[in-house]
Amino acid sequence: MRWIVFDYGEVISKRTAALPELAEVLGADSVAFESAYWAHREAYDRGMPDREYWSAVAGKELDEPTSAQLTKIDTTGWLVTEQSTLELITDLKAAGHGLALLSNAPSAFGRLVEVEAWSRQFEHLIFSGDLRMAKPDPEMWAELLDRLGARPRDCVFFDDRQVNIDGAAAAGIDAQLWVSAAKAREHLTAVGIL
Predict the structure, then answer these.
(1) Alpha helices in 14-137 (DSSP H)
(2) Residue spans per domain, the chain
(3) pTM of the predicted model as reported, rounded to 2 decimal places
(4) I need a labelling partner for 70 at 20 to 30 A (CA). Which of 54, 57, 119, 191 fits?
């Protein structure tokens, strides 16, 4: 079986538009907020608890209700999907290929994705926050292949970040930098998947 593995952020989803609203909740300057949001994101994706993450972003200890409010705004902001990518996923599923999601994302976000209608097309949904490791760690590719019961050559992986493509390629996976669903279709057709 061939497995097609997708990253989530800016591949299946559009880039979040929630950052100004998050900054507003904290009464923070939007530029400073965005810098802090991304500065601590890798730790969050690797399993940092929600409240600890938002306190780090805010630069002060936040209470649980504020953390929960920020988490809800943040996770909802990342749920806006790219229709062309969803159509590609549907076509791959109809063609009988295995689908997996491998995302650097906090656990809270993973729980939301699991109930999205489109995610039911995936046999595996893997979130870094649940594993406390993240792409491009070599252990992530080993975990992916173990869960799929697959060899590296059985997988095609799409991600929008070159560092993750490099990590997957080092593991022997056909790793393709995401440009668009149309470009992904071209590659999948060229290798005989579509």
Answers:
(1) 19-26, 30-39, 41-45, 50-58, 64-77, 83-94, 107-113, 128-131
(2) 3-14+80-190, 19-77
(3) 0.95
(4) 119
